[in-house]
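Usage example:
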Amino acid sequence: MQSLVIVAHGSHLNPDSSAPTYAHADTIRAAGAFDEVRTGFWKEEPHFREVLRTVEGDDVYVVPLFVSEGYFTEQVIPRELRLDDWDVTAWDSDGLSADQATLVAEDIGREVHYCGPVGTHEAMTDVIVRRAESVTGDPDVGEGVGLAVVGHGTERNENSAKAIEYHADRIRDRDRFDEVRALYMDEDPEVDDLPDFFESDDVVLVPLFIADGYHTQEDIPEDVGLCADYTDGYDVPTVVDDTRVWYAGAVGTEPLMADVVLERAADAGADLGSALEDVRQTTRVATGD
Amino acid sequence: MDDTATPSSTSVPAIDLPSEAFDAVLDELATRDPGEPLRFEGFTVETETSNGDATTYRLDPAGDEPQTGLSEAALHEALDARAPAVTDWYAFERAVGEFGPRRAFLRWIEDADGETVATRYAALAEGITRAWGELRITATVTDRGARRYDVRHVDDAGTPVGDLDRYDDPLDARDLVTTDAAGRYRPLKTAPTLAAGWVFADLGPHDAYETVETIYPATVANWHREREGDLDVSHWRETMARQSGIYGVVKTWDRGEGYEHVNWVAESCCADSQCLKRREWEYDEETDLDVDGGDGVFPCREPCSLVVSAARKWTRLESEQPRSYTFELTPSEKEQLETIVDAVADGRADEIREADVKDGANRFRARFLRAKRFDDNGTLCGVATDPDDAE
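Running the assembly step on the lines above writes:
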């Protein structure tokens, strides 16, 4: 029996935090590749500490719905899941290349495949592009348009910036958008000065965050100048200093994210049948193209 | 019946043996060697010999003697006459399946490890009801021996299904648990703030379990471990010692000067009025807290993330040293402050009637106190919080 466990941050204050996790779990359930799909959280229930005991399967894949390798994926999740003998070297990662480690979870006495975070998977690049298509309503968006991929920056974790740059580079190499820039909230180049970094009249701004919350709904819109106060709201697009800014909100809410979760499990050995193809199809409908 | 699976005085309902149950019996017997019996309540069935096509069966006892040499058709007839016992086997061995927590929970609902099939089927015919937190779960049996479950809020016990919002997919329960009746986000699923007005009226065993799992995550798994005698309780000290990052500071709150602060935490956060789990964690393995753990049916095995978050705040606040302040208040004003703290702590502030000025926590009473006793900086009686700031 094959089980998928999606682990995510969650929130004590904001119900939107877990919404993408549930949505992607539902998409994957509908694809039918796993006998069960469970979700576990750091700030909600079931907690990381107790989610594995709700899992029935004997072939368990744990996929962190986090944007980068770092404190949560390397310390908190393995500790709270009680993965025996976890050591970050098991991933043998340069900060972007964590794939999976197979370890016994002490809580259930069974092996689990602990996967790298969704945010650093190469399939995440496609989700960022898809997010740009969704927010502009244009499945061919790119020509004459700039793309800003925005993240936290290195203040807390240098791997956070690595993931942003990784995807920005990959999208740039596709020559689809006129310009692609990696911007940050707490270091240069800062998202506050967005129009300074682009010549294009239209710029799509995609924050590499899993869920909408304080950063994507309050911080970034105010920093970029989409609104003076986030409670005022803003239009998409909004003109800032002669640049039309298409603000996408958290990339993690894009339905295609379910595909990245599946890719992580597949890389760890899960038998997915046609689920990857199915999920790409069903999430494509959601964007209307 | 409420909360217990007490025997009913009504009779065992008529049950037709469904073909899938009979087929499951044959399948099970085919996996067993001749002479290795399959046990039902009150009798066993085994394969005698399999000579080519002519498999025969033995049923023991049948009346005073075993029945031997039964053909498949004769076995079907004999089992149809014993349909309650056979469908009971089928319900738990096949429909419910092996997963420990689910199986134990659904057996507990109808007291399957304590009562006979006849007693349970008679009771199921009327409905056996159990409480689980704020849930009311009622099990019934169909005329084919299958279990069906009605899951709803305890406050909706007597409400007709048609008067409630009806759901069938357990995952729909996620929306029901997200906010309370006033629309406020519920960060703790086991808080006694589950909104009423809905029903999962006709669930099979898997969906009944999943609905409970969605509403009260991991509570069945923890209850099951506790019943099995292996609940892994993680006490306050070890839980706080494990914390890192912004929560790492919490371990410094334990200063080896006793555990009174943890009593206060448990009294604040873990009382039954705040959380329906029964607290099983203590200060440490040797030191019990002085506060009651509550009466919940499912256990709490370690301080939850809300307690850890709150403890982080208290760790900082409690590092302050007390000071003496002098305020001038009337006796009624002092009591009013106490009433206001109580009203907030008990979640009563929103319930106080607009014009109930007899209540010290009434908004107009509080506004009057503020107008009279706070200065322009919002400072009580003009007394500076930090004496160095005093003018």
